[in-house]
Amino acid sequence: MLPRHASFRDPAPILVRRLVQLYVGLLFYGIGIALIVRGELGVAPWDVLTQGISKQTGLNFGLVTVITSVFVLLLWIPIRQKPGFGTIMNVLLVGPAADLGLWLIPSGLDLWVRIVLLPAGILVLAMATGLYIGAHFGPGPRDGLMTGIHARTGWRIWIVRTSIELVVLAAGWLLGGNVGIGTVAFALLIGPLCGYTIPLFAIKRPTVEHADAGASGERESTSPAAAPAAP
């Protein structure tokens, strides 16, 4: 039962704050993705793949995000990575939140507006990352894949992350995803920004966190080195 899991053993005020922070973070993660997409100057590697699949299948962006997240979660099985409550919420909510943002923000905006949307989206996404990871409910599916491979192989985080994102980026580009200056800006900025926002929004918890965090992948997810490039 989830309430008996270590993630739910905090005093009520702390638990409520963590849950609110988790859901707010996931909502704004989707909004951040939408801002970058509407910037139309290039998107993050995983979103390039999402755009490519969406273009080829006719499925909307949010649905493809959910389907891709479920597939990535299945890849956790061979590396024996266990999802947390936040992992499942990430799979279910980021895609619909991105669709909400895409509905609120029109396409085909003037260039100067799109230039503003790109850094705004990266900043919002970095803050959202700090919020949802700082809630200590487990990593997102893509982060967990990265840290899980790192744990099983001993390869350095940056090697694992770069290898995964290059494969994803190439596949998305071949499928018609939008690669551009925004893709490069995201790659250069998201790591340092998340390195600031993750500790900034990390909620201090009772000592039970330290006893059980490793089992759910929470310890890995709070490391700035594992700052995500996607949900």
Describe this protein's structure.
With 231 residues, this protein is mostly helical. It has helices at residues 12-39, 45-57, 61-74, 85-104, 111-134, 141-153, 157-174, 181-201, 208-216, 218-221.
Helix and strand topology:
Layout: H1 12-39, H2 45-57, H3 61-74, H4 85-104, H5 111-134, H6 141-153, H7 157-174, H8 181-201, H9 208-216, H10 218-221
Instruction: Give the C-alpha Rg.
Output: 17 Å
Terminal CA distance reads: 25 Å
- Counting DSSP H or I runs of 4 or more residues, the number of helices is 10
Strand content: under 5%
Whole-number mean pLDDT: 86
> Low-confidence parts lasting 5 or more residues at pLDDT below 50?
208-226
Number of strands: 0
Report on the biggest sheet: none
- The shape, in one word, is globular
Can you give the helix content as a percent range? over 70%
SSE ordering: HHHHHHHHHH
Structural class based on helices, strands and sheet pairing: mainly alpha
Compact overview of the structure:
By secondary structure, the chain is mainly alpha-helical.
Which short descriptors sum up this protein?
mainly alpha; 10 helices
